[in-house]
Amino acid sequence: MYPKRFLSPRNDLCFKRIFGTERNKDILIHFLNDLLKPTPPIQDVTFLKTIQDPEIAPHRVSIVDVMCQDQNGDRFVIEMQLSHEEAFDRRALYYATKAYCSQRQKDVEYKDLKDVYFLAVTDFCPFPKKKHWFSRIGLKDLDTNEHDIKAIQLFFMQLPLFKKGKEDLKTMTINEKWAYFFKYADDMHSKELEELIGEDLIIKRAYEEVDRFNWTDNELLNYESVELKHASNVGVRDAAFNMGFAEGQEKGKVEGIAEGVEEGIKLGIEQGIEQGIEKGIEQGIEKGVKEGERKKSIEVAKCLLAQCLAISQISTITGLSEEEIELLTEEKSPR
After folding, report:
1. Which helix or strand (DSSP H or E) is residue 92 part of?
2. Residue 243 has pLDDT above 70, yes or no
């Protein structure tokens, strides 16, 4: 099987080669202007160090993929995130605000602080409820929805939400071409590439940077090393997830059985009480009816005794035993 012609721009080395080198500043400038549409547009950029010193949180160093500033001093932080990371939205905000606060040097006034743009290209969905693959997030008035503070803006390209395919190559917007580049570059063929590029030569330049024929053997080895490391991390993560899922299922079974037994006992007691009450009422009514009937039979028997009717006949009429009628006779006799 022949290796693919194009490498993945999601790979850390590829990403930094395309967007983080002096020779490819034009690609970065077009990319940022296309997606972020800053005002005024970016004409030139200066790369800044990607390791942000821990001025805000001591002993907490932030490492971003690409950071630069344009001709006006506005700062741009660009991140490529492959694996799902919990609270990535907070991490993004942390990076953006750190880039903003780091401008505050001794002689810099607040009014001179420049805007910060944070852009994340993610191979997972930090905002899974979003319907569109590209999101622009800023500070707004919650009542009027006015965008009063524009000092910090965050942009997210969620690749799993990008659904266009090969049949859409000729009709894609420039932003969609960038999304397609990130998601499918390593699966592209020459004919498809021609359809996608059209007149967008900067997209062609981006593909040239991930063409394996433009990489040395040593660079390709480093690329494969990064790929293997990522695959290993994914494998460990998936194994941990599966192990946790299995343990969770087993624990769920045990807890479920315990809860089931407890609930069964509770339900049994409740049902027993309820049934007992019902049975008691039923038995009480039955007993009451029987006692009522007995009292009635006794009264009838007393009347028949008063009429000197034979005890055997009274027993037949009332259902009382002859012994019971004899007792009634004794009760009537004077002491």
Report:
1. helix 88-101
2. no
Residue 326 lies in a domain: no
Question: What whole-number distance in Å separates Cα of residue 59 and Cα of residue 82?
Answer: 25
CA angle in degrees (0–180, nearest 5) for 87-252-236: 45
SS3 72: coil
54: domain range?
12-215
262's tokens: 């407890």
pTM of the model: 0.68
Number of domains making up the chain: 1
In a domain, 163, yes or no: yes
With beta carbons less than 8 A apart as the criterion, state whether 48 and 75 touch: yes
81, 17, 219, 225 alpha-carbon torsion, rounded to 10°: -10
Q: What DSSP string runs through 28-71? A: HHHHHHHHH--SSPP--EEE--SEE--SSSTT--EE-SEEEEET
Q: What are phi and psi of 122, to 5 degrees?
A: -120, 140
Q: What is the DSSP string of 132-144?
A: SSEEEEEE--TTT
**45 inside domain:** yes
Q: Decide if 27 is inside a domain.
A: yes
The rounded distance, in Å, linking the Cα atoms of 12 and 199 is 28
**Tens digit of each residue's pLDDT (9 = 90 or more) over 44-71:** 999 998 876 544 444 444 578 999 999 9
Residue pair 134/165 in contact by the 8 Å Cβ criterion: no
Q: Distance between CA 140 and CA 150 in Å, rounded?
A: 9
Is residue 25's pLDDT more than 50?
A: yes
